[in-house]
Amino acid sequence: MARKNSPEESRSQKGVRKRHRFLRYILVILAVLLIAAASCSAYEYYNLRPQHHFNNLPSIGKTTSKIKERTGTFNLLLMGSDARPGDPAGHSDSLLLVHANLNNHTYNILSIPRDTRVYMPGVGYTKLTSVNYMDQLNHGIKQGSTDAVAAISQLTGVPINYFAETNNWGFQDMVDSIGGIDMTLPFDVTLTHPWYPQDKNKTFTAGTHALNGQMVNEIVHERDSVPGTDYGRQQLQEAALIGIAKKVGQPANVTKLPSLLGSVSKYLIATNMTQEDMISAGLSVMSHLHLQQQIHYLQIKGTNEVLYDDMLKSDNDEVVLDPSQLQSLAKKYFMN
Question: Helix, strand, or coil here: 144?
Fold first, then answer.
């Protein structure tokens, strides 16, 4: 008889899956930006330099916060959807609020629980993942995503300038779309928790390997077999992005870049960023790619409560965040 996981083991496994999703959505957005930057001409480079491009920014949602906008900085909400190809809507599987400072190349990233309780004007209280799903069903993908962004802006008090929503397969597909990459591993990697069962216990030695999208996706998710666990995985993440940057910069791929950039919709379900926005942000990322030092991960914990959900018209498991802690994080990391 198969052994049943204990509650502690189940929570641990869920935590691993959440960390995997977190990384996947970060990678697909960064990969899009790298491709966008590589497609930039000399003329565009002059006009789209990040320190000049990001000013007079749009703002989604209404907040009472009064902050002085600084050129070269913006707030971006990354949303990962669980929608499969052909689905009319998806639940927000991962929600990451990013404060990007392109002047000093730092990125503060706050992970927001998908089941966070929020108030929707005209509806009442529900959880974030339902806002995205129900509004996408009723009003279309982009409007549903925009409404979810507005709910988070109201919850945190942070003006959100941009959003980008991607799905589970974006990163793997993107690597395959450029014909795979050469990835230089700083240490040996053994796949202990792969997405595909047949990849269990595969080992890659330190050094450079020619890899397809599936293998890159497997490697950048690994943490248990690498030095420093999460820190080691960040090194693998950077190695993958460097491999992508080198591949898209090869002369043989230059003619493919405009069409590849034009197919961004395959990797981004919804966004309000223009190609110019992506190119400008990508130029900043490519100019100073040291993610371990640049990215500051933040988490906020709440209490799990069973509460009445006005959108779903029933009791629901929801996460209630501490407003004072949330305001403190927002003020310190997202409003300067």
Answer: helix
Is 33 in a helix, a strand, or coil?
helix
Q: In 3-state terms, the chain is what percent helix, strand and coil (to 5)?
A: 45, 25, 30
Does the reported pTM lie above 0.85?
no
123: left (phi over 0), alpha (psi -120 to 50) or beta: alpha
**CB distance 288 to 72 below 8 Å:** no
Nearest to 75 by CA among 152, 167, 168: 152
Residue-wise pLDDT for 109-153, tens only, equals 888 888 899 888 888 999 888 887 777 767 777 777 888 888 889
Query: Which of the 8 DSSP states describes residue 29?
Result: H
**Nearest Cα to Cα of residue 167 among 279, 263, 281, 78:** 78
Looking at residue 255, what DSSP letter applies? G
Q: Which of 49, 278, 28 is nearest to 167 (CA)?
A: 28
CB atoms near residue 176 (< 10 Å): 16
Percent pLDDT > 70 in the chain is 81
Q: How far apart are CA 264 and CA 286, in angstroms?
A: 18
Residue 145 CA, chain-centre distance (Å), reads 14
